[in-house]
Amino acid sequence: MSLTLTVDGTRWRSHLETVADANPGIVPVAKGNGYGFTVGRLARKTQWLADRGHDVTALAVGTYGEIAEVATRWEGDIVVLTPWRPFIEPLDPALAKRVIHTVSRLVDLDELLTASPQARIVLERTTSMRRHGMEGRELWEAGEVLRRHPGARLEGVALHLPLQQGNHLGEVSRLLTDAIAADCGIDTVWVSHLTGAELTTLREQYGDFTIRPRIGTQLWLGDRGALHVTATVLDVHPVEKGDSFGYRARTAPKSGHLLVVSGGTAHGIGLEAPTGESSIKARAATLARGGLDAVGFVRSPYSIDGKQRLFAEPPHMQASMLFLPHGARVPAVGDMIDVRVRYTATAFDKIVIA
Ligand SMILES: *Cc1c(COP(=O)(O)O)cnc(C)c1O
């Protein structure tokens, strides 16, 4: 009855170990929906990597709210990627020693250290992403603030780089020059989205820095062949041309079958972008051929016998209706069909690690 993620456990674990080996100091990122696996499961897997002897001492979560999901499943440090702000509630003192705060504004640095003089912090430097962070001059001023708070534990500088678009190394060197100029004892760089080659070059060029790559997608989802998503066929109804169905009482444009399958808006199943052919002329041509997308049926992420199928109407909360034109093989209730999902936006009912 469910939208299921089936994981080839041996293959997945071997991929996790390969990525961990290739990236010493790796900081696995476990945030949001846990890349489809849940944050808790990723925390346990991070512990497993550390137990297997890989160089993993910190796990990154996205928000302060996620700390509780990982703290009992992972024994090491927990970096919070969303920068600290004054409205963040104080941490449970039992956890405070394990948490590393990201600080992206000077005012926050002073306020956090006034409230928690021994806080562990990473200073975030702005990058071409322009999401959060301090400019070079502010990093330098941060050094001044830190000298007024000698109990603070500076754990390095964080750079959040855009997704692979050519070479990041020029930008990283510029930003590191600022970090060195700030003269506040930065010796570790926490980075995202560098390629293996870029990381190697960086390690060679900045031998006295520890480079800590934060990796989510490439680690958890890097071997798609280890993952398989299926939905269950919950119901099958034959329809004739003109029969009405669904919340909006649409009519079937031709004979075929309606399939009710598991997976709906609550799982993150959404309408696909319309087919590439969106020009009026292309649509007219499809209409002339009797194509179903021309009568308003939209491509779904479900496929049967390798062919992507159309939604009969927009997905419901927990199930979706598909239209299967006459002539296609009709699956039976209980059969599994393939679904293509965006893992970072999907909540599975069931995760089976086989
Ligand atoms: C999410 C995130 C990452 C990990 O990104 P992936 O593309 O999943 O590897 C790294 N750094 C920061 C700041 C993030 O928010």
Could you state the CATH homologous superfamily of the largest domain?
Answer: Alanine racemase
Q: If you consult CATH, what is the topology of the largest domain?
A: TIM Barrel
What is the total number of structural domains?
2
Report the end-to-end length measured between terminal Cα atoms. 19 Å
Series of secondary-structure elements, N-terminal to C-terminal: EHEHEHEHEHEHEHEHEHEEEEHEEEEE
CATH top level of the largest domain? Alpha Beta
For the biggest sheet, the summary is:
8 strands, parallel
Helix content: 25-40%
- Largest beta sheet: what is the strand line-up? 2-9-8-7-6-5-4-3
Second rung of CATH, namely the architecture of the largest domain: Alpha-Beta Barrel
Radius of gyration: 25 Å
Distinct small-molecule ligands in the complex? pyridoxal-5'-phosphate
Low-confidence runs (pLDDT<50, min 5 residues)?
Answer: none
Shape estimate? elongated
Organism: Nocardioides humilatus
Pfam family, one: Ala_racemase_N
GO molecular function: catalytic activity
Protein name: Alanine racemase
Q: What do you see in this structure?
A:
With about 350 residues, this protein is an alpha/beta fold. It folds into 2 domains: about 10-220, Alanine racemase (TIM Barrel, Alpha-Beta Barrel); about 225-354, Lyase, Ornithine Decarboxylase, Chain A, domain 1 (Beta Barrel). The chain contains 10 helices and 18 strands. The strands form 3 sheets. The protein has an 8-stranded parallel β-sheet. α6 (about 135-150) runs parallel beside α7. The mean pLDDT is about 90. The site of pyridoxal-5'-phosphate has 10 residues, from β9 and α9.
